[in-house]
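Board notes (copied after class):
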Amino acid sequence: MVPLTLPDLPIARLRLTFRLLEDARVPTYKGGMLRGGFGHAFHRATCPSACWGKAEHCTQTNICPYRWVFETPHPPEIQKLHDLQDVPRPFVIDLPDDSRTFIHAGENLEFGLALIGRGLDFLPYFLFGFARLGEMGLGAGRARAERVDAWAVLALEQQVLFEGLLQRGFYLRDFRRFSRNERRAG
């Protein structure tokens, strides 16, 4: 019997935290809020304003981070991906077991993020996009985030990847990018 060999597929698991500046009314299921808000913030953070809302008509010859992440092109050698119309996105938002519909100012909202394959190459853009989402606000009232933290979830420990305050603009502090060896070891 021939052993099954799977391709190398790096995966990074992160834990992200928003601390709110204002009270927030949020849905019980937070997936739509996080995914939709993140997509909007990521698009605004990584594309020229001429592409906002119409990335499919972008005239840039290089594919920007937004299009790689949200409109992943089919590999040229593969015309059809079984029964999928679109290439799967290189990330998964892992929702918390959190049924709160109201989050008070100063409280946290935590969730997981898995970056898969080429998604790891865009880690800084993901962190910047989520920081931008915190700046733009969450929930019906657009409650702004005071702080966004990202932790790498490793085998037995958590490593700070990103920590930034969003009170008067955006800045990075204590950001370290994974090397490919660190990704595989985790």
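Comment from the instructor: The radius of gyration is 18 Å. The longest strand covers residues 11-20.
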